[in-house]
Design a protein that fits this description.
alpha/beta; Rossmann fold; two-stranded antiparallel ribbon; 6 helices; globular
């Protein structure tokens, strides 16, 4: 194991033992330098199959853990309460340069959603899209699942002329804080026939990333369960590397 990764893993162990017990009583900094939006969206008719509203998946533990680790690692003033639930059609979204959206296989964009989301992205907002997959079977849909195809169709309402692109290690988003040396990652759970993890993006007219998509992956699952012993510590550390890079890219580009 290389020394940087070993130090990261040791740091994560220390963080878990230090911050997790105090989450419920820790109000976080009074004037945080970083707060992000968890997007609440209109859902498809089959969203009832999920145990909880799909936009809500991994809430609130992932939302508490991620900004806490971000603050500890970068010294950015942020903490376990540095997130807000924001409706996708609300003007409140413009307060948050970085936003998180999960389970996009269940999103159903209305005309108002489309206008608001396009304006958010055109103004420089950055959207992390997480927790979706392509598989021959899904317990959520009781059959085949192809979330990327569904989300691509929905995003054509926003940008008819644009499509998702495959990202590689040369992209600045993978070199913003941590230098990511591999995009080979194992998802926290795998449905039968699930395709490999992909990192996709949506770019503006100047080539800047407006959106990163963790296809066939769910990195916030690692954030949620890091203190439960259910996940590999190596994979948990990797998930934070990606998340922190995404956030800092959003704040600096």
């Amino acid at each position: 194991m290389r020394r940087p990764l070993l130090l990261t893993l040791i740091g994560l162990v220390v963080l878990v033992t230090m911050f997790r017990p105090r989450l419920s009583g820790d109000a976080g900094p009074r004037d945080p330098e970083f707060t992000y939006a968890r997007i609440r969206y209109h859902m498809t008719a089959d969203s009832w199959r999920v145990n909880e509203p799909p936009w809500h998946h991994d809430y609130p533990y992932a939302d508490e853990t991620f900004p806490t680790v971000l603050g500890e690692v970068t010294n950015i003033k942020t903490g376990s309460t540095s997130y807000q639930i924001v409706d996708i059609d609300s003007p409140e979204i413009f307060k948050y340069p970085f936003a998180y959206l999960c389970e996009p296989g269940f999103i159903d964009l209305t005309s108002k959603d489309v206008i608001n989301l396009r304006e958010y992205l055109d103004r420089g907002g950055f959207l992390l899209v997480d927790d979706f997959r392509t598989a021959i079977y899904s317990r959520y849909k009781d059959g085949p699942e192809d979330d990327i195809a569904h989300f691509r169709t929905e995003m054509k309402k926003v940008y008819p002329e644009r499509d998702f692109v495959r990202l590689d290690l040369s992209d600045p988003v993978f070199n913003t804080f941590y230098k990511i040396d591999s995009l080979d990652m194992t998802a926290p759970y795998i449905f039968p026939g699930q395709s490999p993890v992909q990192f996709l993006g949506l770019r503006d007219a100047h080539g800047n990333l407006q959106m990163v998509l963790n296809n066939n992956n769910d990195i916030s699952e690692f954030w949620e369960w890091i203190d439960q012993g259910r996940m590999s510590m190596h994979d948990a550390a990797t998930s934070f590397h990606f998340g922190i890079n995404y956030a800092l890219y959003a704040m600096t580009h």
